[in-house]
Amino acid sequence: GQNIDQPTEMTATEGAIVQINCTYQTSGFNGLFWYQQHAGEAPTFLSYNVLDGLEEKGRFSSFLSRSKGYSYLLLKELQMKDSASYLCAVRSGGFKTIFGAGTRLFVKA
Amino acid sequence: ETGVTQTPRHLVMGMTNKKSLKCEQHLGHNAMYWYKQSAKKPLELMFVYSLEERVENNSVPSRFSPECPNSSHLFLHLHTLQPEDSALYLCASSQDPASAGNTIYFGEGSWLTVV
Q1: Which of B31, B42, B106 is facing A42, going by the closest CB pair?
Q2: Residue B8, preceding bond cis, omega within 30 degrees?
């Protein structure tokens, strides 16, 4: 079967660093995506990894290990506006992109 | 503004009604998608259209009927739905669904409540 696991909820403090983990088991792999979704809004693209290693984009970084079926999203210098759901998604092949259930991040002052 | 526009944003319908959700993308993309998002569950892929041809149909009940008249427009026709079909329906588009780095861009969704 195909499965993507990520924690349901996380809480962190403004200004801190938080790491959101994602593990996946899919029949194929053509890249891993992270999306941010604020309540009542569309998911928006954050990052894409297809090779092992770290991709850095401003305050956000994403890491991939294909051999371990593992990724994480790292958010630095947390801001209140970072409170949102973070969706891990894997392009498994063909036209299919499979999504995890999302991690709700609460940033407190 | 995401480049993908969905209407209506909110819809309440009875189980015997017929309604449609509309999606339009202004990004010049070749592929369009319907996803269903239920509370605390992963996004579920329903349909994929590439160059107006349906290329993916994920065992969706026939009470959901998609239509893609051109590469910019996508509809989801709804008929005799069940209360468990209440969810957020997200339309999305992408440039090239066959490429590995294909990034999907979502609309803001249509909240559907079936009563």
Answers
A1: B106
A2: yes
